[in-house]
Amino acid sequence: MQTSASAPADDRLLPRIGQWLSTTNLVVPAILVAWFAIVIVPIIILFVYSFFSTAQFRTVYEPSLDTWIGLFESGRWEVTLRTLRIAVTVTLIELVGAFPFALWLAKGGVSKGGRAVCLALLTIPFFLDMSSRTIVWRAILGQSGLVNTVLMGTGLTDAPVEWLLYSEVAVHFGMVVSLFPPMVLPIYMAINLIDDSLIEASKDLGASPWQTLRRVILPLSLPGVMAGVVFCLGPALAAWVEPGMLGGGFVNLISNSIESAYSALRYPVVAALSAFVILLLLVLLAAMYLIARRFGDPASSFRVLRG
């Protein structure tokens, strides 16, 4: 009786599964097409637009290299190098600080309550506007701010420290503070997914804590590290709030050049600068991919440990 009762159910279930698979086969291509139309097509248009030029506040729709040549001949090349230097420096600082914190949070024996509190503190900044999170540091780092008041009150300095605000140091500091959660959260998720039995197996094979970290945890967490670098490096290359509020106009980055070109109605220059940022990001991501392929094989690490 049980077999006969289950047969009709199977007869009804198999068509449903086939219908679901056929629906999935239609949904996935539709999602890919939509993603291509929403994400890739605008980027292609951006690159195409960068090969136009501007004359008398009007866009000349004739392909030429004038905009790109002017981009490299003007002072914007120096601005680009400064932007790249600051973005890479901030990303490295974030990585050095975020990886140990994520490792401690995921595998450091933190209680569930403590982990929930830490994750909540990391996600709270996402509910605040970037300008609101940044402008408060002007009152803290200014010449009459909290830091200088404490320094002069304790006798460490006789005059306010001027480079705390409106300098590259202030811009670095503002970016590090604002981009720490996007760096640490993907790394935490990747490390948290590592099976504890793999770590115990490396210990059983005689690996030291440093060897376990370098040959097991780090290779398995590379996807999270790469995601964190992308989430940090991209916004750092396009940052405009921190340079504007903490740089005070003395630290010009690509975002400032894009804003000035947009105000002057030089839209091809805006497109060329934006396209150049995308190219820089793609080059850095390609380098990261090669590094991940080189050091991201935990199976070889276990073979080395057994040897």
Query: What is the N-to-C order of secondary-structure elements (H for helix, E for strand)?
Result: HEEHHHHHHHHHHHH
Outline, from the CA principal axes?
Answer: globular
Largest sheet: 2 strands, antiparallel
Ends: how far apart?
Answer: 59 Å
Work out the strand percent.
Answer: under 5%
Q: Into which percent range does the helicity of residues fall? A: over 70%
CATH topology (level 3) name: MetI-like fold
From the helix content, strand content and strand pairing, which structural class follows? mainly alpha
Under the CATH scheme, which architecture would be assigned? Orthogonal Bundle
Query: What is the CATH superfamily?
Result: MetI-like
Q: Give the CATH class.
A: Mainly Alpha
Q: Which regions have little confidence, pLDDT < 50, spanning 5+ residues?
A: 1-10
* Strand line-up across the major sheet: 1-2
Structural account:
With 307 residues, the protein is mostly helical. It has a single domain, classed as MetI-like (MetI-like fold, Orthogonal Bundle), CATH 1.10.3720. Helix content is 77%, strand content 2%. A two-stranded antiparallel ribbon has the order 1-2. Strand 1 and strand 2 form a beta hairpin. Residues 1-10 have low confidence and may be disordered.
Short description:
The protein is mostly helical.
What tags apply to this protein structure?
307 residues; mainly alpha; MetI-like fold; 13 helices; globular
Task: Describe the protein's topology.
Blueprint: H1 2-49, E1 53-55, E2 58-60, H2 66-73, H3 76-107, H4 112-123, H5 130-141, H6 146-153, H7 168-192, H8 196-204, H9 209-237, H10 241-245, H11 254-263, H12 267-295, H13 298-306
Antiparallel strand pairs: 1-2
Helix pairs in contact: 1-12, 3-7, 3-9, 7-9, 8-9, 9-12, 9-13, 11-12
